[in-house]
Write a structure and sequence with these properties.
about 450 residues; mainly beta; five-stranded antiparallel β-sheet; about 35% strand
Length: about 450
């Protein structure tokens, strides 16, 4: 789900070697990234970003606003990107140049023997990974469940579908899972609808919509926005529902995309909208998988931004959907306060991050056979990316180094595709309770 929350305080990286390396490479990177952030967000040109100008998650604004005066300056952004002292964890520079170290010497790995049989932690470098727990859905057993595991793979919390879902259990798949600030967990239950449970496993809210799928976001006003991927042309692919179950907003794409080259596409639905991210100003970002397109809608559902995928395309009308290069299948994009976007291109077995304005690529990683089906990528406060594929969850550095990886041996791939019990999305919960991932 899509309200990325960044930490205010967490300990700096352990290890003097890592600290020395980061201190040497972070300043120049932080300066260029800070200047880009300021330029993109400073609407009135006064040299600082006010809370009303901020387009990212409010928690990220609080992170950069070190003095709490309601404005973010260039110096505060630079300090935040560098780590800003012991109160902030130092982010790894996003250096994608060829000479960037493929395996920094500071990342020392330790053997892990996971106490759980359902998954295995087969890569862990404590000095370079972002410490916390990982929340995801495990659909491999007879009853789907949500689990939260620590860095060693130890189960620290779980929720199994209860009797209230009755005979539906064998047909259902838990898709998106989203930890809420109050400790509850909101999730999408494919074939049933939306559910929110507390830490005791008690259902505190639910909404029935058997077409609900992929992704949901809890809005500041208490409403929930979600997508419906597999519906036919003309039906709602995005809806907003109030706590009492009233649908107050919907979008079906007909006004904008019932035209060439999009009008006659059909693959698991017309649009197959697979992600939604709500922004503080009421806008929402959607991923239109079948159109290889990312779009931004205003509160009155006007399309005000289109990002063609692949990035080499300059116009959505230039698509040739008979060309496999145009069928990249974007999945679960994440928009960041600094103007960058991270997204998985499932058909290309690749996840990328790029500047939302210039479209310049900032990071990318292509997976091998066991990483088929990447569908979720989340930027962590240390600059790493947490990625979910069909059968693994992996934390990768800007240099594409794996510093933490969880695999699910029970998940089988058939011709490169996973069965319904495959992994879908994940969140990293920081040691201070901060939530990272959509």
């Amino acid at each position: 789900m899509k309200c990325q929350r960044f930490q205010k305080t967490l300990a700096i990286f352990a290890g003097t070697i890592a600290a020395t390396m980061l201190a040497g490479i972070a300043p120049a990177h932080a300066q260029s990234r800070a200047e880009m952030m300021l330029k993109n967000a400073d609407a009135d040109g006064d040299g600082r970003i006010s809370r009303s100008e901020w387009k990212g998650p409010p928690q990220r604004f609080d992170y950069f606003d070190a003095d709490g005066d309601g404005y973010v300056t260039l110096e505060e952004i630079q300090a935040g990107l560098r780590g800003g002292g012991e109160a902030r964890q130092r982010p790894v520079a996003r250096d994608t140049a060829p000479e960037a170290a493929a395996r920094p010497k500071s990342c020392d790995y330790q053997p892990v023997t996971s106490p759980e049989s359902a998954w295995t932690i087969d890569s862990y470098a404590p000095d370079c990974a972002y410490a916390g727990t990982t929340l995801f859905a495990d659909n491999t057993g007879s009853t789907p469940r949500i689990v939260e595991v620590d860095m060693q793979g130890k189960l620290v919390w779980q929720y199994k579908l209860g009797n209230e879902f009755g005979s539906f259990q064998k047909q259902l798949q838990i898709m998106d899972v989203d930890r809420q600030p109050n400790g509850n967990t909101l999730f999408v239950l494919r074939g049933w609808g939306l559910v929110e449970v507390n830490r005791d496993g008690k259902t505190v809210w639910k909404f029935r919509d058997e077409d609900a799928s992929h992704d949901a976001d809890r809005l500041p006003n208490g409403n929930t926005i979600y997508v419906r991927a597999w519906v036919a042309k003309g039906k709602d692919v995005m809806r907003e529902v109030t706590p009492d179950g009233k649908i107050v907003r919907s979008w079906n794409g007909m006004q904008d995309y019932n035209r060439p080259p999009f009008a006659n596409i059909e693959h698991e639905g017309w649009i197959h909208t697979n992600a939604v991210q709500a922004m503080p100003n009421g806008d929402v970002y959607l991923s239109l998988r079948n159109f290889s397109l990312l779009v931004r809608l205003t509160p009155d559902n006007r399309v005000v931004e289109e990002i063609p995928m692949p990035l080499s395309r300059t116009s959505v009308d230039a698509y040739d959907f008979s060309n496999k290069d145009d069928q990249v299948a974007p999945h679960d994009p994440e928009y960041h306060a600094d103007g960058s976007v991270a997204v998985c291109l499932t058909n290309k077995v690749t996840c990328i991050a790029f500047d939302g304005k210039t479209r310049k690529r900032l990071w990318s990683h292509r997976f091998g056979e066991e990483g088929q089906g990447p569908r979720d990528v989340n930027l962590l406060p240390n600059g790493n990316y947490l990625v979910v594929t069909h059968k693994l969850i992996e934390e990768l550095t800007p240099q594409e180094q794996s510093v933490w990886r969880l695999t699910m041996p029970a998940i089988k791939l058939v011709r490169g595709k996973a069965l319904p019990e495959d992994l879908f999305k994940a969140q990293r919960i920081g040691a201070d309770g901060s939530i990272h991932g959509n």
